[in-house]
Amino acid sequence: MNRTVIRKNGIPLYVQVKDKVISDIRAGIYQSGDKLPTERELSAMIGVSRNTISQAYHELEHEGVIASAQGRGTFVCDRDDKVRLGNRRDLLQKVIDVALEECLQLGFTLDDFLQFASSRAKEKATLLDQSQIVFIECNREQVEYFSRKLEFGGVHITPVIIDELRDQERDALLQVESADLIMTTFFHFEEVRELLGDTRSVLAVSLDPELETIVKIARIPVHSEVGIVCRSERFAGKIRSALRQAGLDGYILRMTTTSDMQELSQFVKGLQAVIVSPSRKREVEKAIASHQSVIEFVFRPDAASVNLLRAAVADVRRKR
């Protein structure tokens, strides 16, 4: 693998790592089924942080380029280039074709398969619809946004702030007690487990910045003055951390949580761009000048976390 990454060229480091892995696969250096270097090994080879490698691997797994197996490592997916670049619909069709072949070999008809599959899908939908999930995070804007992003198939996710658990607030405790499943991010996993004790299991999910968000920020000239507008200092801290991990730490960052429009208008004056949390975008757009850009900083759960959540929800409902 080419071990050189170019810093401060406007392209996030993890995007460069992704491109290098894909390039090596296309060149035949890594072939279908080959094991890739661990995050630690690749970090040492290229000279970037493990967080950068982890982010690149997360994106590659989401796009179907690689697959990870717990305890075994990370491997190149055994698929052609078109599927490898993210054509999940083709992959699903292959799964269905295999199931159809098994169905026929067992002596069932195609009509039987259609009936069974439809019935099973409805059962799964009912299980998901009846599930109550609590998502615990450290600030209101992030937990509410993530809860909406993680909802699927009729599942309702109730947001709970971690401070509400620390303070033993009654509503938060009741929501946790009645939940079928409790989830949080890896960042707060240990603390949530300590607060809840051994009586409840907790599912941790990984949340990454959307690639589109990072690309937009990377287009801002280095050393520009850039504002961060959100509702909490904690969320601003997560934005700063994500920018550092992506190698976008060459800006002069200003931050505010004010909701006063006059103060906000004064804050954005002279800034090259303003990075906003999803809940602040509209009001910031009213305060900026026409030449300034507003970039919504969006985190999203990775595909592996969503799939894990779906499986966990169905399993919990089945046991109960």
UniProtKB/TrEMBL annotation:
Q: What is this protein called?
A: HTH gntR-type domain-containing protein
Q: Tell me what organism the protein belongs to.
A: Sulfoacidibacillus ferrooxidans
In Pfam terms, one family for this protein is GntR
Q: Which GO terms describe its molecular function?
A: DNA binding; DNA-binding transcription factor activity
Q: What keywords are assigned to this protein?
A: DNA-binding, Transcription, Transcription regulation
- In this chain the HTH gntR-type domain maps to 11-79
